[in-house]
Amino acid sequence: MAVRLRMAVHGVRNNRIFHLVAVNQRQRRNAKPIELLGVYNPRLKPGDTTKTVEWSPERIKYWLKVGATPTKTVTKLLQMGGILDPNTSLSPNAAAQQSSSTDPGASSETNPIPPSEPSAPSAQPTVA
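and the corresponding structure tokens:
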């Protein structure tokens, strides 16, 4: 069973709460999770200046250790929280850099396209 760490959306419109969950990746977004790992409320309470995430770092590290793959959003959140190292292979930036890098020994040879010859005027009548 492939496990993914992702955000599940809860709450009414314009007052969403996101749960960080470990869930089978084949299930729908708000399916019953294997485990609830944290809660993120993006709304600021009166008087607060920062958004907070309540989570269990031990359980998140456990799921990462046993092979759960986080989504891009969760990866960014874990990096900001200091649970994941920014240079880890789970980082979306690291994955993009690996896929975009090319072998330095490979030559970038291009095949020139011969110029096209001017085509003969079409035989279709034009309507004026």
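(Above: one complete record from the training split.) The chain is about 20% helix and 25% strand.
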